[in-house]
Amino acid sequence: REEDSVAAEAAAAAAALVTSSAYYSTSAPKAELLIKMKDMQEQSVEPESEEELEEENDTELANKKVMHLYSAH
């Protein structure tokens, strides 16, 4: 029936709006976090020793894990 079709379209449109607003409300904080992380990496000084290089690699690995967790949601 035409009424069922219209109702289904309205429900789909409402679901799309809810999904997109939820997407944008979580995407903005993610983008801010990414920008902050990138800025922090750019501000970090060049490592002078192997120990500092190792710490930097640990930080990069931690950042990748955080990014993976965010992208999974």
What does this structure look like?
- The chain is mostly helical and 73 residues long.
- It has one domain.
- Helices cover 89% and strands 0% of the residues.
- It contains 2 helices and no strands.
- The longest helix has 42 residues.
- The model has no long low-confidence stretch (mean pLDDT 74).
- It is found in: Cytoplasm, Cytoskeleton.
- InterPro entries: ASD2_dom, Shroom_fam.
- This is Protein Shroom2 isoform X3.
Secondary-structure blueprint of this entry?
Elements: H1 2-43, H2 50-72
Q: Which shape, going by the Cα principal axes?
A: rod-shaped
Question: What is the domain total for the residues?
Answer: 1
- Report the β-strand fraction as a percent range: under 5%
Radius of gyration from CA coordinates: 21 Å
Instruction: Describe the main β-sheet briefly.
Output: none
Mean pLDDT: 74
Order of helices and strands: HH
Number of strands: 0
Structural class of the helices, strands and pairings?
Answer: mainly alpha
Task: Estimate percent helicity.
Answer: over 70%
Number of helices: 2
Family: Belongs to the shroom family.
Main location: cytoplasm
Organism: Silurus asotus (Amur catfish)
Subcellular location: Cytoplasm, Cytoskeleton
